[in-house]
Amino acid sequence: MAKKLYDLSQGLSANTSFWPYYPPFEVKYFKRKVEHGVNAQYIATSNHIGTHLDAPRHFVTNGITIDKIPLEWVYGPGVIVDLTAEMTDLAVYTPEMIESKVKVEKGDILILHTGWHKYQFGESDQADEERYIHMHPGAHPDMCDWLIKKEIKLWGMDCVSTDHPMNLPIGRFLGKGTFAQCDKVRKAAVKHFGSEEAVDKLFPQDHYQLTHNALFKHNCFHVENLGGEISAPELQNKRCTISCVPWKFVDGEAAFCRAMAILD
Fold first, then answer.
1. Which residues pair with 240 in a beta bridge?
2. What is 4-11+48-163+209-263's CATH superfamily?
3. Which among 81, 182, 183 is positioned nearest to 139, based on CA atoms?
4. Of 123, 158, 228, 256, most Cβ neighbours within 10 A?
């Protein structure tokens, strides 16, 4: 039976939004055909830009690295869940939202389609880098126990992080003392959730980078900055084969990957 492959990856270039204060993606030619008889390029970058997979080592000192991740954890059966109707600036996604749309089996690869990839530069004519970085949806605290119970190794979404901005530098200290982006994000969060008390209850201080700190020690990790054809109608709320295979980066705490969905 013929299979159809869907690219779930964002393009990677010097224009790609990078994590605040991390080194951006840089590329240059060091050989050109006209001069050297060959074209060859050099890149310098952090690992946390574009579509990439975080290994447990990213947040666990002795966690497994990219090269030690079993291939069956990054290739296999899974689901793509369409959450676009529920997602607004600073929204949270919950296990209940997911399970109302599709049955998630134990050990699945779980992909969440929030629609936020369209704000990444180069993904659509709606590109809005500040909205992509500052106002993206994020995980409700209940997601952590649910993912562990479901024995999920790999999950991902079309946002810059699995964590909500209020559990990240974005909503806590980004630009403090300069442009104070964090104060603007917190003000928007208070408006969205109704009060300062509601924000503090949902995002307590000890939940900083919650999905990273709580899940990586259980070898439950993720791929961030998905995009590409993730909005294809035939993928929404469907089971398929998912591939998020990174390059074999020895001792790597993260690595770029070319994510795909495969339908029969």
1. 78
2. Putative cyclase (3.50.30.50)
3. 81
4. 158
Write down the H helix ranges in 9-141.
Answer: 33-36, 71-74, 95-99, 129-134
The answer to whether 159 and 224 are in contact (CB under 8 A) is: yes
Q: 6-41: per-residue pLDDT in tens?
A: 999 999 999 999 999 999 999 999 999 999 999 999
Residue 137 above 80 pLDDT? yes
Exposed / middle / buried, residue 179 (Cβ in 10 Å: 0-12, 13-18, 19+): exposed
* Helix ranges, 40-109 (H): 71-74, 95-99
Length of the chain: 264
Domain boundary assignment for the chain: 4-11+48-163+209-263
* pLDDT of 2: 85
Q: pLDDT tens digits for 65-97?
A: 999 999 999 999 999 999 999 999 999 999 999
Helices (H), the chain: 33-36, 71-74, 95-99, 129-134, 142-149, 169-172, 181-193, 196-202, 210-215
> For residue 130, is pLDDT > 80?
yes
pLDDT digits (tens, 9 = 90+) for 151-175: 999 999 999 999 999 999 999 999 9
Handedness of CA 192, 193, 199, 202 (dihedral sign): negative
- Is residue 202 within 8 Å of residue 141, measured between CB atoms? yes
- Alpha carbon distance, N-terminus to C-terminus of the chain: 7
Token output for 72: 């069956």
Residue 116 and residue 161 in contact, taking contact as beta carbons nearer than 8 Å: no
**The two three-digit tokens of residue 5, written as one number:** 């492959």
Cα dihedral: 227, 134, 155, 262 (round 10): -10
